[in-house]
Amino acid sequence: MSQQLALTKRNPSIDYVKVWASFSVISIHFRLNVQEMIPIETFGKWTSLFFSVIYQIFIPCVPLFLIATGYLMHRKTYSLKYYITILKLFSLYVLCSLVTYGIMRYYAGTALSMKEIIYSIERFQLIPYSWYVEMYIGFAIIIPLINIFIQRTTQKELGYLIISLMIISSIPPFINSNPQLNRFFYLPSFWISLYPILYYLIGALLHKYYDVQTIRHRKRSFSILAVHISSTLIGIYINFANADPTAGASEGGYPSIIVVIQSVSLFLLITSLFKKESRLVASVSKLTLSIYLMSYVVDQIIYPYFLSKIGQPESLLVYMTLISSIIFTLSTLLASLVQQINTLSWFYIEKILKALS
């Protein structure tokens, strides 16, 4: 989702990170769309375990985007061009919202007045998934300021800041969300919302002081894999142990220290294993934000369709990979169309502005 403001020269492995993160978003939404459909009386232990597993496997989706953003953008500075790219990102969001409304009106008969459409777009409500855009636009405005700090600090100082942010924004949600722990003590949670900055700084640290593509030593790779598997299994256990019967978020969500460890280790694994440039992967990686946004309307069509064909919501679990793949493919096609319209629109806007200046 960071591609709109990314540096021109990119590490090809980051494209793989972003594509996997994009597919992970769609996969984790499988839980959101299906879990609530299943009647509690038929929601058994195996179903709870299934949702605990897929939730924890795909929860690094947003953290991976934020780490990639820090990796790609830690040298960005303020300029007119930079602010224009933020406007382009917002216009892409508006176009995705309008296309989503158009499809929902045709497919589901959803009808809103012009005032209601504008109101919903302004409040990031026309697409329920667009909370990320609301967060990211504000974050993008302060990124160059954060970058000044990054460039003026030593590796040790940056490391201390990351550790400090983990203490105030990552450990509290892990403790407070876990019933086995919060019954004994509760940590102050005021600074949890700083987690996007935490992931951004981790990405910047990895790019500035470490060459993630040189992690080839077999023992080092196995160590990172072991850390990733261990943190994933801990998250699965916590969510399964606290399923009621629905599962998820008992480990603390995106800010949780468990998810931080899981996401950073996964980022290192992907960037060390996938180094070969691919035109297809690079093309899809440029669409990640619009894929994410357009997946909402595709969800509203695909899940009811499969449910009407299969009958029982719990039977959808067998088709998770197929459903997620179909949604990802259709969302990518819609995203490509919307992004082309956005690019073409800005081509003419910039041409007109140039002619007037």
SSE topology:
Elements (H helix, E strand, L loop, with lengths): L11 H24 L9 H14 L2 H13 L6 H29 L5 H9 L8 H22 L2 H22 L2 H4 L12 H15 L8 H24 L15 H17 L5 H7 L2 H23 L9 H37 L1
Helix pairs in contact: 1-2, 1-3, 1-11, 1-12, 1-13, 1-14, 2-10, 3-9, 3-11, 4-6, 4-13, 4-14, 7-9, 10-11, 13-14
List unreliable stretches of 5+ residues: none
Nearest-integer average pLDDT: 92
Oligomer: single chain
Total strands: the figure is 0
Round the Cα radius of gyration to an integer and report it.
21 Å
Q: Number of helix segments?
A: 14
Q: Globular, elongated, flat, extended or rod-shaped: what is the shape?
A: globular
Distance between the termini: 32 Å
Strand content: under 5%
**H/E series, N to C?**
HHHHHHHHHHHHHH
Sheet with the most strands?
none
Helix fraction, binned, reads: over 70%
Helix/strand class:
mainly alpha
